[in-house]
Amino acid sequence: MADAEPLIALCPSTQLVDGGVGLRFDVLVDGETLGAFAVRHRGRAVAYLNRCAHVAMELDWVAGRFFDGDGETLLCATHGAAYDPADGRCLGGPCAGRGGLRPLQVVEQDGVVYWRPEPAVRPRADAADARA
Q: pTM for the complete prediction?
């Protein structure tokens, strides 16, 4: 895959615990800096833009707290929109009928969680320089 975007290291795999605190990071979407996050759900690292489908605001009131009390559902702290951590689809609440969270591609290799940028979602220049 010669065209594949280079991977950006996010964190050690051990930092993401099932249903636990997530990792926040910034990305560029159409030249605008937006928040994103990575969490672990049922053993798998997943990542999404940190934008509720109901209202374009970040999900977490407390930085990195994306899961409900059971650690099974991603929850928007502002209005209670609920999302499936496995695929980001809306499960209920005010996001109903508005799609879901925008997924980002992550992979785990050698004990590290990496994000693979794509043409529409890029790393910030200063973040890419810091991780180079």
A: 0.90
